[in-house]
Write a structure and sequence with these properties.
Number of helices: 8
CATH topology of the largest domain: Spore Coat Polysaccharide Biosynthesis Protein SpsA, Chain A
CATH class of the largest domain: Alpha Beta
Domain Glycosyltransferase 2-like: 18-118
Pfam family, one: Glycos_transf_2
Structural class: alpha/beta
Family: Belongs to the glycosyltransferase 2 family.
Protein name: WcnY
Distance between the termini: 43 Å
Organism: Escherichia coli
Shape: globular
Length: 288
């Protein structure tokens, strides 16, 4: 039996053996809900986990919401949200829980620092201020207030959902974490990064390197959602104006990189332009 302090939500999408074994290991210590977004039925067994096979891709936001709803319904206090590629160890999860237990209720999310394997770099914690964006190195032994963190590896205080709401399913995949975190900020909630806790994670495919700078790379369909959802977030009043400004400044250079330095670049160009068009028109959900 598990206590009802913290459960784990893992979103699967065509998981490999390593993903399955990692989830199996976590299920030995915690109640694990696996929401499988794979279109094809993949056979695997994780006896101690509760597996929900959707047999279609409903998007990361909807999949997370299914898991979050389960733990709220069953009176859990926290939920750790994980991508299938993340590999937190048991001590990291217990440290997140112990830290959260000493926080006030307005701290809705705590997260470790993460090492991005794709670009060989520790990610900074980002803070949006009136004067601009502050990149805070993930170092030290004190918690760092952040405007947002990546979903995977974060520990969510479930009581905050009643005020903040669930993940925005209209976004489907990209910027789901940023939108939710900035929505939480706008309602007075705090998000804390814990730099002494480390988690390895990989975002995207093999990065593109130009003039000693590495750009996270994705498939054409992910670039559709990236560009579309930027324009959807521009419409939202709770999104910090400095974030909007920052993303608009980065938009053209990113378009240039993905248009000229990716394989099958025409697919990327069409996807990005379609995303911009659909974002301006306000089209949401899964790409038709």
């Amino acid at each position: 039996m598990y206590d009802k302090v913290c459960g784990i939500v893992i979103v699967f999408y065509h998981p490999n053996d390593e993903n399955i074994n990692s989830a199996k290991k976590l299920s030995e210590s915690y109640k694990v809900i696996i929401v499988d977004n794979s279109e094809k039925d993949i056979t695997y067994s994780i006896p101690k986990a509760h597996i929900i096979k959707l047999k279609r891709n409903v998007g990361i936001a909807a999949a997370l919401n299914i898991g979050i709803h389960f733990f709220i319904k069953n009176n859990y206090k926290y939920a750790v949200l994980l991508d299938q590629d993340s590999e937190p160890d048991k001590s990291l999860l217990s440290s997140l829980i112990n830290y959260s237990e000493n926080c006030t209720d307005n701290v809705c999310l705590v997260a470790p620092s993460y090492y991005d394997r794709a670009i060989n770099k520790n990610a900074d914690f980002i803070l949006c201020t009136e004067k601009g964006i502050i990149r805070q190195p993930a170092i030290g032994k004190n918690a760092i207030e952040a405007s947002y963190v990546i979903t995977s590896g974060s520990l969510l205080r479930l009581s905050s959902i009643s005020n903040i709401g669930f993940m925005d399913e209209d976004l489907f995949i990209d910027f789901v974490d940023i939108e939710w975190c900035l929505r939480a900020n706008s309602l007075g909630y705090k998000i804390l990064g814990l730099p002494w806790l480390k988690m390895s994670h990989e975002i995207g495919d093999k990065p593109i390197k130009i003039l000693n700078k590495k750009y996270v790379n994705h498939s054409p369909i992910r670039h559709y959602y990236y560009f579309r959802n930027i324009f959807l977030l521009m419409r939202m009043s709770h999104i910090h104006p400095q974030w909007k400004k920052w993303e608009l400044i980065k938009l053209l250079p990113r378009f240039f990189v993905y248009a000229f330095f990716t394989k099958n670049n025409m697919k990327h160009i069409v996807s990005m332009l379609t995303g911009v068009y659909d974002g301006i028109l306000g089209r949401v959900g899964k790409k038709k």
